[in-house]
Amino acid sequence: KEKHKILHQLLQNSTSPVDL
Amino acid sequence: PEAADLRALARHLYEAYLKYFPLTKAKARAILSGKTGEKVPFVIHDMKSLMEGEQFINCRQIPSLDHQQQVSTLRFFHSCQSRSAEAVREVTEFAKSIPGFIDLDLNDQVTLLKYGVIEVLIIMMSPLMNKDGTLISYGQIFMTREFLKSLRKPFCQMMEPKFEFSVKFNTLELDDSDMALFLAVIILSGDRPGLLNVKPIEQLQETVLHSLELQLKLNHPDSLQLFAKLLQKMTDLRQIVTDHVHLIELLKKTEVDMFLHPLLQEIMKDLY
Question: Could you tell me how many helices (H) and strands (E) chain A has, helices first?
Fold first, then answer.
């Protein structure tokens, strides 16, 4: 899970979850 | 499934596509053919116009490097990455809108995105390209193919395979509603390495494939074997992605100032 942290975040949050 | 259900699925995916992807094929082709009320794109054809055009490029993540010609190539590469990361977010939202996708095992959702997203981005690049160049920055800039070929190695090798693919792909003349279904088919590939539960993915893909087949029959009644031709493109895509990832690995080794966006790093690590 740690290896794909940002992808997990993008999948689990619907609105601007990650500061890209 | 009933034809009405397949049509409803096609409509749903087309709506999601329009919602999440800001530059449609219809708009891109209008810009490229000059049939648009909008501004004519700024043309980047050499280092001088690249430096002038940078003001239009979305560069939120670029570290503030000085404006010297020798760093322009890398700086441009960084802004491409920033846009790619944003595009990954758009593709993720589109994937989540595919009926059944968010019910899949979360690890499988990650795997499908990791392996599918670059393929999707290459398909989405095709409508922005013609034989002479490509639109970038949401259609505000047209960058010539000759200019990209003139960059120093290995940057000059990055886009040429995408142009070759796109010029052929564009002859299939898909529209945005066809594209939406094709992108969903790519995302729902049950043969990605490391998937835990393949069966529900294959079931979802089969339904979307039926919907795509029906869509192409209705939307392109005179285009024989279009469905088969389109599916064959998926093989070419995998090779392009493999070569692309190897080129990025080479860049990481050879470029001192190379910065790879963390999201893109995640996607490309141990990919092929």
Answer: 1, 0
Contact at CB, A12 and B269, closer than 8 angstroms? no
Chain B residue numbers with beta carbons less than 8 Å from the beta carbon of A13 are none
Chain B segment 206-265 residues within 8 A of A by beta carbon are: 262-263
- pLDDT band at B266, cuts 50/70/90? very high
Helix (H, G, I), strand (E, B) or coil at A20: coil
Kindly give, in sequence order, each residue whose CB lies less than 8 Å from that of residue A11, ignoring residues fewer than 6 positions away: B92, B96, B102, B106, B109, B110, B113
> Predicted confidence band at A17 (pLDDT cuts at 50, 70, 90)?
very low
With beta carbons under 8 A apart, name residues in chain A contacting B102.
11
| DSSP 3-state of B106 | helix
DSSP single-letter state for residue B58: -
DSSP string, B131-190: TTEEEEGGGTEEEEHHHHHHSPTTGGGTSHHHHHHHHHHHTT---HHHHHHHHHHHHT-T
Mapped onto helix, strand or coil, the DSSP state of residue B46 is: coil
Residue B61 contacts residue A20 (beta carbons within 8 Å) = yes
Distance to chain A for B170, nearest Cα, Å? 30
Q: Where are the alpha helices (DSSP H) in chain B?
A: 3-20, 25-32, 47-53, 69-96, 106-125, 145-150, 160-170, 176-187, 198-219, 226-254, 262-268
Distance of CA A15 to the CA centre of its chain: 10
Angle at B124 between CA B83 and CA B245, to 5 degrees: 65
* 3-state SS, residue B197: coil
A12-16, B36-40, B153-157, B213-217: segment of lowest average pLDDT? A12-16
